[in-house]
Amino acid sequence: MAHEEIVDRYSRFARTAMTGRPGHDPASSDDASFEEGCFGAAGYDDTDALPDGALRASLGCGNPVAVADLHEGDVVLDLGSGGGIDVLLSARRVGPTGKVYGLDASTDMLNLARDNAAQAGVTNTEFLHGTIEHVPLPGRTVDVVISNCVINLSDDKAATLAEAFRVLRPGGRFGVSDVVADDSVPDQDLRRRTETRIGCTAGSLTAGEYRALLLDAGFTGISITPTADHGDGVHSAIVKAAKPPVAPGFEIRPMRAEDADQVLSVYQLGLDTGHASFETTAPTWETFSSARLGHLRYVVADTRTGRVVAWVAASRVSARPVYAGVVEHSIYVHPDHGARGLGRALLDAFVAASEDAGVWTIQSGVFPENTASLALHRAAGFRVLGTRERVGRHHGVWRDVLMIERRSPAV
């Protein structure tokens, strides 16, 4: 179903809700199955004092507010806010010092939501017209992104998740209800019919695809928990993740090709210390990139200037399947930005992302003289396995290397 058709469909829902008739599409399912699947208002247990229009227009597949861990003063964004039920519930939780944005592509839904907010006497909300693939908010604006059975409607889910990451502040949380399919579904036709029956018109992601897109966007701490089974490998689920925390004024995000010059500059500054590597000159970007995995590479960027001040990346240890979950990593911090906790925040984010990607062992080699790197890695759970004595020459001097490793307790 095209974007315009989806907007028109939900606009009709909004107009129906305004008339006082049930807000869901009667062709999608009967009332019993709609409630048994926790769709609509059936998914909530805290709807007292909400306007009837908000309940009638509730078309979600769960209750993201119940799992979003909202705090007093939080700024929240609801992707695809519909009649406003999740916005109003969130507004209660964040209180007068917080704020909740509702984003929807349907002007009819926005009009209904604004009416519902006015009826509820809620003033800490703002409803925005736009799409979830192009959120009309500046970067690092909100603390929490929620959504209720809307991301599955997008025909560009990667862009939607990238936008959610962009607008979140460092340390921000992502907590949505959505429709998710099993990674292995034997009958794709049955799956598609089930998705259509429950209104998942653009097709759901599998759990593995969802996890991969969240990782690509930069999220860590990913969990996908089924909440209702709709048959044929299709489920409602709670999807949670986080944007890595870091010191104020900085952001941890995936490394991009346009970061090449800055990444290599930080690399060279590290090599110039004489204690970072046997290498003495940073490689070309093509050599750097081809030697490392396409994922599990991140930077710390100054949010005021955009400058890259630290980076981390992983390399494959072996092409043998038995070592699929073993990687070697490198981490470099600009000398002018030490002692700010940036290296620890970056390494913590890398470890979390590695576990999300199924990595069970991270390893590397460190010169014994590089005491700052050793302290950083020990604090992040690495241990020294042993010493490779006089393993190579650096500027004519034979050097020892300490072999370090972190084994995941989770993977």
Provide a descriptive summary of the structure in words.
With 411 residues, the protein is of the alpha/beta class. Helices cover 31% and strands 28% of the residues. The strands form two sheets. Strands 1, 2, 3, 4, 5, 6, 7 and 8 form an eight-stranded mixed β-sheet that branches. The chain has a seven-stranded mixed β-sheet with strand order 9-10-11-12-13-15-14. Strand 12 (326-333), helix 11 (342-356) and strand 13 (361-366) form a beta-alpha-beta unit. The longest helix has 17 residues, at 3-19. The chain is elongated.
Low-confidence stretches: 21-39
Share in β-strands: 25-35%
Largest sheet: 8 strands, mixed
Radius of gyration: 24 Å
How many strand units? 15
Query: How many H/I helices?
Result: 12
Helix and strand content put the structural class at alpha/beta
Overall mean pLDDT stands at 88
Distance separating the two termini: 38 Å
Q: Roughly what percent helix? A: 25-40%
- Order of SSEs: HHHEHEHEEHEHEHEEEHHEEEHEHEE
Shape: elongated
What is this structure, in a nutshell?
This protein is an alpha/beta fold and 411 residues long. It is built from 12 helices and 15 strands. It has helices at 3-19, 31-36, 52-56, 85-94, 107-120, 157-167, 188-197, 207-217, 260-271, 285-290, 342-356, 371-379; strands at residues 75-79, 99-104, 125-129, 142-148, 168-181, 205-206, 220-231, 234-242, 250-254, 297-302, 308-316, 326-333, 361-366, 383-394, 397-407.
